Amino acid sequence: MDKAIKRYFPIFVLPTLLAFTMGFIAPFLVGVYLSFCKFTTINDATFIGFSNYTKIFTDGTFVHSLWYTALFTIVSVILINFFAFLAAMLLTRKIKGTNIFRTVFFMPNLIGGIILGYIWSLLLNGILLQVNKTLTYSSTYGFWGLIILMCWQQIGYMMIIYIAGIQNIPGDLVEAAKIDGANNWDILKNVTIPMVMPSITICTFLTLTNGFKLFDQNLALTNGEPSNMSELLALNIFRTFYGRAGWEGVGQAKAVVFFILVAVIAIGQNMLTRSKEVQQ
Fold first, then answer.
1. DSSP-assigned letters across all residues of 136-183
2. How many structural domains does the chain have?
3. What range does the domain containing 224 cover?
């Protein structure tokens, strides 16, 4: 069997590898090259070196979007994972109707980001209009509107992952802890959390990358208003590329910087949380 696998695996791997190369690697490499060019289409690209990259940090909107996105990601990661873990702990207890609650909490994740943005725009603006304000009144309102939307959409999804991790904890460990006199807090701190670290790794990775990459909800909920002050990085890159004539190369350079930033942070987080996982 091993000999057959070694002999024929290229036949099965080649189609997927070819599709991955055509759909991801080749466009990515072309995109990196274009970040060093001035262009309007691929056919008229002219190499200009690092000029596009020097323009990035002179663009005040990019710098603001960078810090705004970083703050948004930190807050959303903490809140989503905290409430998802709390919901998972409650719904793994023997309570009637837990399956219904799990389904209801998960359902917002099935709704598209644009639709979610418009739904919450109507809801939140309806509340804020009571004090003659809207989400576009200030970046603070837009920020917390995006946080509420993100939490509502993703808590249920992360909850399912945490539930799977909690249910995978051997019952013998919990029973042994109780026999040794551990209270609920001791069990949570010394048994549950260490054993659920693989789920924490996955959920932190997903919420971290989703926070940085958020685009459609930002577009639908605030559209960057007022004056691009509630604009996240993905929306800023989109507007630079498509909304500013002659800045296509700068938009592409921003996309490359964005990719490197998210990749470094995600890999660092993954290594950090994996190092704390307990082998069962």
1. GG-HHHHHHHHHHHHHHHHHHHHHHHHHHHHHTS-HHHHHHHHHTT--
2. 1
3. 59-275
